[in-house]
């Protein structure tokens, strides 16, 4: 693929930001661009991106598949696959504008599609699992093709460049979402590859991530046992899959998933009430290889809201703020103040302490 | 036979200016090497009987003793080395098989030494274990794929787990092959440290029942000392199929080591040879193994994990996979450098494969089959230091068994004469006057010191990697790089070469 | 008070306690010189036969018979430290103490005609030399009921 | 509380130390007709032989009385004991009240009725003054030959001292061997040979009939008719309890002052200890005078504690002696020449180095022993007598050179050695 995929693990520092309107009211991408742009110095122009939830109300029942292609051959091969396995309602180029600082983009395309009913029953899979496997199949086996996002009523817009330029490039001011997350990337070694920018996604899950996961090797091999193919040599991809595994496949509550990825210390578990202790012990025993170790702050986006989380000893920054309708989360407080000068509440979560922003009425997702 | 064609292996040098004729060396040598000569009025030594166990050297209060390899050299010959010649002389004199103790000493590649560890620089911080929590806790036992709650939202109990505060256990060494004081040292150390020790095929001496929660009781082909109380006294049961030092052959505890206590514990007549058959005569197939695993689970009311220990041999990955499917909760793999109380030299030095390669292959295979997340993997067979442990865990092990290292901490100086029963350090012996040389309180403390030291080192290494919990190291082969390894070796180990 | 207790189950019979006792009570405090150049009777007695051995030294009894028997007042119990002290200057070598000590841990000094040889707990050291140097912790220096 | 102790030797000192264990306040007065700071009576022969100085004779340090808060009346003598008024009259005219009294007056040498026994140069040998007087004679006079009557402990220690001073000594003894009270025939022979080798001559199974001479004896006539020249003589045929003081009181006497196991006499508040007393003999199982130093101290100590209100008892008395002549040591205890049935006697062969051992058993328990020459660890046997330990299982080992605690079972050993 153009700029080629990394063959070794990518290390990076970053800026992240997210805005949720808890009432589900949608707003344009301008604010998230302003917020992430403020942290310009935390990126180096080698990657920027956005996840937006609620942007495709007219196709909200369809899987919105965003694709990068290196060339038309790749596009043709993937479309052949998609046509065989999906019923495609719409296939179109994602609108972009010429931006000076953005060069050499891939072919960027999107599809609104549903799994082919016949195939579904043939494999005996739920449609989300079918989509997930298809995504990993394309990413692993189709040279020159990359699935950027695959959820419903959401999409990811990313590329090589500073995030504000990427936002400009994708005309994000024209989209309206109730949840935006954004990422500015500072990789230390990577070639400029569009697929390598954040957010990473699977189905509805999107991750923006600042940090480096020292446990990546363990997490990756653990995921592989469940059929995940970590093809991008990045911990962010692995984090995405971990959440997919626990939340979607194992039906864990967000709270339990947090106890796995940012597990309480054994000394803390020791002090818990018996029932809580038993559960926490079981989670660490079973999901030990899901523990994310090393410095990170992440925002996990989802159709119901977001989870922001630091590593358990807080080695990366994360700030949260709230006003009447919205919850903000960012690497730096200034990035929040830039778009909400007088929040009602601002705080810095402790290491391992999850910050949950959910749409009103969706609180049961937590526990 | 007349002339002994062998020359002394070691030469004892005594500095007469230092020697004070205190005769400590004489009192301490079970091989009766040292003696005070009344006529010469000085200490003298019988070099040919010396096994170089260093007991006398260590206890000599004036450091008057030095033991050297006999400098007499054979004519240079890369093929017919001195060692080869001596072995032939021994057999020509006795007609017996060559016996030996402890692990394989030959100069074959030690893969641990060709694997290097990673550390964090800049992009992720290393963690200082003196300031930050550093967790080494590990659970061994069968894990479900996912956490499960019942209809009332109550957590379903996990299958039985062994909780280890440090991913180290003391490997199987039977009472009989080692002394009761050695057993007590290990059992007490395991209890105090929150680890496990393993009874080996020696039954459980009554004094050791108190350490039951830290005991893995072994069931081997001789079934010595196995009864219901025994099975239920420990926290886990291990079926020993094979041993790294002597894959494919059984065990032999000579009758002179079967004293009253060993006899009672093993439930065999006093003075009789304890012969463990090469195979379990109720396991001729994987389905037989499954039956035994479930028989033991039945006997222990499904409250104890069952481990299956095998020697690392050529098709170890497939065997391990079969064992996992047969219902074992823990698989223990013993590499060809593993120790033994007694083994035929030719077997020990030529049968089996390195545990590093076996571990990598087994971990890979179990992952390919999706079984690794369910079954625990323990490796052994010459884990020599904390770095070996870190490498083993990164290659994919949950924990390690150490045995030789533990015995060394008790005083063993690797003379490899365990099979003679005359261990001057009170370890591999049943002679009361030698057994009491190992004070189990001192022994337990020394073992604990060793493990404490190792655990500090493991924490330092983990911290350097930017990891603060052991589970993030398990199977994390990105933390490893190879040097001086071929592409094939790197491929099997699943690691990159240094520089990549 | 802290006393030395032998644990015969761990006594090797190596007699290193004796070696270090002699060194500790030598003028040179040098192990080689003490044995090669000085004449010192150890203050410790080792009983050893077959597989059993143990070391014995003055028990520093509460009601020490030797102090009561001593005809010169050369052996007296220090009520503060509990140590049964011996003053060679006052001793005439009548051996009444040997007669009185039911532990048999006082003996004639082989190298002096009137002094006895008896453990002094190496009072100037932190713990007695025999205890420090026992390779198997078969001697313990501790307070017991 | 007023404590008065008559006697300043082992029992008296024991009593002072005993009282102070219990009572730090009460007044203690010690009265002795000897003017000396407490001294060690057994050392008088060493003093005579110039082996110890006057300073070294002291049984306790120079500040002993001060340290223990003791008033002394040394060189004075109690002439009357008023048991009703609890009052003592002293020779000096002083009267002293007491609440508790200890009679520790020791023994008096027995002088048999021999013609001429009152001559100036005839001595007994139990006090420092005796030793000083003899020493002075040897130093000043022309003393070349001395006859000693009695080959017991006192006689032989005197003989040893005089030989060391260059005097020729002849010992006359009625019994057939030396040290007949503490040795058997075999051991006595060795000791005698050893003493003879040093120049002492013995006349056994004989006694002195007459000391001849004017003021001073110049010769002795023996019962056998033999005549011996002498420049000085010492009578050492035995010591009797010095009960004189209490003879006029209601204190009950036998050979000595009768005491119970708390060392109290029949008169409440009056105690006796040491050579004057007659307490329980563990070995004989009956009352006896046990005139030995360690016994005196122990009795004094227990008496002192009880005087001060404690309730200690002492039942461990039996005869035991450690003595040596010219470097030949011996330790003996209890019954060593058993008479009658019920005894078992074990004895070793005489060894070249004059080593000899003998143990007497009764009902499996040791009641007496002799260790000659190789005396180390003899105290183990003393202890076994005291503990009344059954040793029938280890009889064979009792005589071994290296007899020790190894001979016992581990359990017994742990008990005996408190391990």
What does this structure look like?
The complex is a heterotetramer of chains A (367), B (500), C (145) and D (419). With 367 residues, chain A is α+β, with helices and mostly antiparallel strands. Helices cover 29% and strands 28% of the residues of chain A. Chain A has helices at 30-38, 72-85, 117-123, 127-141, 163-169, 216-225, 235-249, 254-261, 266-270, 274-286, 333-337; strands at 12-21, 27-28, 48-53, 63-69, 86-93, 107-115, 145-149, 154-159, 176-177, 179-187, 200-202, 205-211, 296-302, 305-310, 319-322, 326-330, 345-347, 355-358. In chain A, strand 13 and strand 14 (305-310) form a beta hairpin. Chain A is globular. With 500 residues, chain B is an alpha/beta fold. Chain B is 30% helix and 16% strand. Chain B has 15 helices and 21 strands. The longest helix of chain C is centred in the N-terminal third of the chain and has 9 residues, at 16-24. In chain C, 56% of the residues are buried. Chain D folds into three domains: 2-108 and 244-307, FAD/NAD(P)-binding domain, CATH 3.50.50.60; 122-237, FAD/NAD(P)-binding domain (3-Layer(bba) Sandwich), CATH 3.50.50.60; 329-416, 2-Layer Sandwich (Enolase-like, domain 1), CATH 3.30.390. Chain D is built from ten helices and 26 strands. A five-stranded parallel beta sheet of chain D has the order 3-2-1-7-19. In chain D, strands 9-16-10-11-12 form a five-stranded parallel beta sheet, with helices on one face. In chain D, helix 1 runs parallel beside helix 8. The model of chain D has no long low-confidence stretch (mean pLDDT 93). The chains are: A alpha+beta (367), B alpha/beta (500), C alpha+beta (145), D alpha/beta (419). Chains in contact: A-B, B-C, C-D. Chain A binds chain B through residues 8-9, 11-13, 188, 211-212, 214-219, 221-222, 224-226, 249-250, 252, 256, 263, 265-267, 275, 278-279, 282-289, 291-295, 312-313, 315, and chain B through 120, 122-125, 127, 132-133, 135, 137, 139, 143-147, 155, 158, 161, 367, 370, 372-373, 394, 465-469, 471-479, 496, 500.
């Amino acid at each position: 693929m153009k700029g080629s995929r990394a063959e070794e693990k990518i290390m990076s520092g970053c800026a992240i930001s997210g805005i949720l309107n808890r009432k589900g009211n949608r707003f344009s991408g301008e604010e998230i661009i302003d917020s992430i742009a403020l942290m310009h110095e935390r990126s180096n122009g080698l990657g920027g991106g956005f996840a937006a939830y609620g942007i495709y109300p007219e196709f909200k029942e369809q899987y919105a598949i965003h694709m990068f292609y290196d060339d038309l051959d790749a596009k043709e091969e993937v479309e052949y696959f998609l046509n065989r396995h999906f019923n495609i309602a719409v296939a179109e180029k994602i609108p972009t504008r010429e931006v000076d600082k953005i060069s050499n983009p891939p072919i960027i395309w999107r599809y609104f599609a549903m799994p082919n009913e016949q195939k579904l029953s043939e494999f005996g899979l739920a449609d989300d699992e079918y989509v997930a496997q298809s995504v990993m199949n394309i990413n692993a086996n189709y040279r020159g093709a990359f699935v950027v996002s695959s959820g419903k009523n959401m999409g990811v817009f990313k590329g090589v460049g500073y995030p504000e330029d990427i936002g400009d490039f994708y005309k994000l001011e024209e989209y309206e979402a109730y949840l935006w997350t954004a990422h500015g990337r500072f990789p230390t070694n990577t070639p400029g590859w569009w697929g390598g920018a954040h957010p990473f996604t699977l189905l509805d899950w999107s991750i923006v991530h600042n940090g480096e996961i020292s446990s990546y090797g363990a997490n990756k091999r653990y995921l592989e046992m469940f059929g995940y193919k970590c093809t991008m040599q990045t911990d962010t991809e692995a984090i995405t899959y971990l959440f997919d595994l626990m939340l979607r496949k194992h039906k864990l509550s967000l709270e339990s998933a947090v106890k796995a990825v940012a597990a309480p210390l054994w000394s803390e578990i020791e002090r818990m009430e018996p029932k809580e202790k038993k559960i926490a012990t079981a989670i660490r025993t079973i999901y030990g290889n899901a523990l994310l170790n090393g410095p990170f702050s992440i925002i996990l986006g989802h159709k119901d809201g977001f989870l922001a989380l630091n590593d358990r000893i807080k080695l990366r920054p994360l700030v949260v703020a709230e006003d009447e309708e919205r919850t903000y989360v960012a690497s730096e407080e200034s990035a929040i103040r830039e778009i909400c000068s007088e929040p009602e509440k601002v705080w810095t979560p402790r290491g391992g302490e999850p910050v949950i922003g959910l749409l009103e009425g969706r609180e049961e997702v937590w526990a | 036979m007349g002339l002994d064609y062998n020359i002394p292996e070691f030469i004892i040098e005594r500095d007469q200016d230092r020697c004070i004729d205190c005769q400590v060396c004489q009192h301490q040598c079970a091989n009766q090497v040292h003696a005070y000569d009344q006529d010469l009025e000085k200490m003298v030594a019988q070099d040919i009987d010396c096994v170089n166990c260093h007991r006398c050297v260590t206890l000599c209060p004036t450091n008057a003793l030095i033991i050297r390899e006999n400098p007499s050299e054979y004519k240079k010959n890369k093929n017919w080395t001195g060692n080869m010649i001596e072995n032939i002389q021994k057999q020509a004199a006795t007609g017996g098989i060559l016996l030996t103790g402890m692990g394989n000493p030959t100069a074959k590649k030690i893969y641990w030494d060709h694997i290097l560890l990673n550390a964090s620089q800049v992009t992720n911080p290393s963690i200082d274990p003196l300031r930050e929590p550093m967790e080494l806790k590990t659970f061994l036992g069968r894990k479900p794929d996912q956490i499960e709650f019942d209809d009332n939202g109550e957590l379903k109990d996990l299958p039985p787990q062994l909780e280890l505060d440090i991913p180290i256990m003391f490997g199987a060494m039977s009472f009989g092959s080692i002394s009761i004081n050695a057993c007590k040292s290990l059992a007490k150390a395991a209890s105090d440290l929150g680890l496990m020790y393993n009874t080996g095929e020696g039954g459980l001496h009554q004094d050791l029942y108190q350490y039951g929660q830290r005991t893995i009781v072994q069931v081997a082909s001789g079934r010595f000392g196995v009864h219901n109380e025994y099975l239920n006294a420990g926290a886990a049961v291990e079926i020993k199929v094979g041993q790294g030092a002597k894959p494919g052959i059984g065990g032999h505890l000579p009758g002179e080591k079967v004293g009253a206590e060993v006899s009672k514990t093993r439930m065999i007549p006093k003075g009789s040879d304890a012969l463990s058959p090469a195979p379990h005569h109720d396991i001729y197939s994987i389905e037989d193994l499954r039956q035994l695993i479930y028989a033991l689970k039945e006997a222990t009311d499904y409250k104890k994990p069952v481990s299956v220990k095998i020697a690392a041999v050529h098709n170890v990955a497939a065997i391990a996979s079969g064992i996992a499917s047969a219902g074992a909760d823990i698989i223990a793999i013993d590499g060809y450098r593993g120790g033994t109380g007694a083994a035929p030299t030719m077997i020990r030095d030529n049968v089996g494969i390195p545990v590093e390669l076996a571990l990598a292959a087994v971990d890979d295979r179990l992952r390919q089959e999706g079984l690794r997340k369910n079954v625990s993997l323990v490796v052994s067979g010459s884990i020599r230091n904390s770095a070996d442990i870190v490498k083993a865990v990164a290659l994919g092990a949950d924990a390690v068994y150490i045995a030789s290292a533990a015995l060394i901490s008790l005083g063993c100086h690797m003379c490899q004469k365990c099979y003679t029963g005359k261990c001057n350090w009170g370890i591999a012996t049943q002679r009361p006057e030698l057994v009491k040389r190992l004070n189990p309180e001192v022994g337990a403390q020394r073992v604990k010191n060793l493990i404490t030291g190792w655990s500090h080192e493991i924490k330092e290494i983990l911290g350097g990697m930017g990891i603060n919990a052991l589970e993030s190291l398990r199977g994390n082969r990105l933390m490893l790089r190879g040097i001086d390894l071929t592409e094939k070796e790197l491929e099997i180990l699943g690691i990159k070469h240094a520089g990549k | 008070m802290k006393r030395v207790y032998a644990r015969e189950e761990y006594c090797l019979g190596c007699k290193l306690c004796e070696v270090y006792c002699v060194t500790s009570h030598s003028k040179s405090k040098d192990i080689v010189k003490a044995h090669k150049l000085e004449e010192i009777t150890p203050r410790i007695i080792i009983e050893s036969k077959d597989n059993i051995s143990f070391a014995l030294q003055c028990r520093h009894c509460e009601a020490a018979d030797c102090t009561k028997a001593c005809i010169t007042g050369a052996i007296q119990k220090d009520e503060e430290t509990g140590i049964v002290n011996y003053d060679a200057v006052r001793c005439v070598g009548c051996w009444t103490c040997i007669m009185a000590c039911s532990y048999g841990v006082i003996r004639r000094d082989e190298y002096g005609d009137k002094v006895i040889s008896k453990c002094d707990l190496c009072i100037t050291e932190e713990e007695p030399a025999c205890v420090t140097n026992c390779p198997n912790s078969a001697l313990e220096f501790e307070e017991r009921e | 509380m007023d404590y008065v102790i008559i006697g300043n030797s082992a029992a008296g000192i024991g009593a002072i130390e005993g009282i102070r264990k219990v009572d730090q306040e009460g007044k203690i007065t010690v009265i002795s007709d000897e003017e000396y700071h407490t001294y060690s009576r057994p050392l008088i022969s060493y003093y005579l032989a110039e082996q110890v100085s006057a300073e070294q004779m002291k049984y306790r340090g120079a500040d002993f009385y001060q340290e223990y808060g003791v008033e002394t009346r040394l060189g004075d003598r109690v002439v009357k004991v008023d048991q009703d008024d609890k009052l003592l009259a002293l020779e000096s005219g002083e009267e002293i009240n007491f609440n508790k009294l200890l009679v520790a007056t020791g023994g008096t040498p027995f002088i048999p009725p021999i013609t001429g026994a009152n001559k100036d140069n005839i001595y007994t040998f139990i006090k420092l003054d005796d030793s000083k007087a003899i020493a002075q004679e040897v130093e000043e006079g022309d003393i070349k030959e001395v006859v000693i009557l009695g080959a017991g402990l006192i006689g032989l220690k005197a003989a040893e001292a005089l030989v060391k001073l260059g005097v020729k000594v002849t010992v006359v003894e009625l019994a057939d061997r030396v040290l007949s009270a503490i040795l058997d025939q075999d051991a006595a022979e060795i000791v005698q040979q050893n003493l003879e080798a040093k120049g002492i001559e013995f006349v056994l199974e004989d006694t002195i009939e007459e000391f001849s001479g004017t003021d001073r004896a110049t010769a002795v006539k023996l019962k056998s008719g033999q005549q011996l020249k002498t420049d000085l003589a010492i009578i050492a045929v035995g010591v009797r309890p010095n009960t004189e003081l209490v003879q006029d009181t209601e204190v009950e006497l036998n050979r000595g002052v009768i005491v119970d196991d708390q060392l109290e006499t029949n008169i409440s508040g009056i105690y006796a200890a040491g050579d004057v007393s007659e307490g329980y003999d563990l070995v004989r199982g009956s009352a006896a005078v046990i005139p030995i130093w360690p016994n005196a101290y122990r009795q004094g100590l227990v008496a002192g504690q009880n005087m001060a209100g404690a309730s200690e008892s002492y039942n461990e008395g039996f005869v035991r002696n450690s003595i040596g002549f010219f470097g030949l040591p011996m330790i003996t205890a209890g019954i060593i020449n058993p008479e009658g049935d019920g005894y078992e006697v074990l004895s070793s062969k005489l060894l070249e180095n004059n080593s000899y051992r003998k143990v007497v058993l009764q009902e499996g328990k040791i009641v007496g022993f002799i260790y000659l020459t190789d005396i180390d660890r003899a105290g183990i046997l003393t202890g076994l007598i005291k503990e009344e330990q059954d040793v029938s299982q280890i009889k064979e080992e009792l005589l071994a050179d290296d007899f020790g605690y190894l001979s016992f079972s581990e359990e017994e050993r742990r008990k005996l050695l408190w391990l």
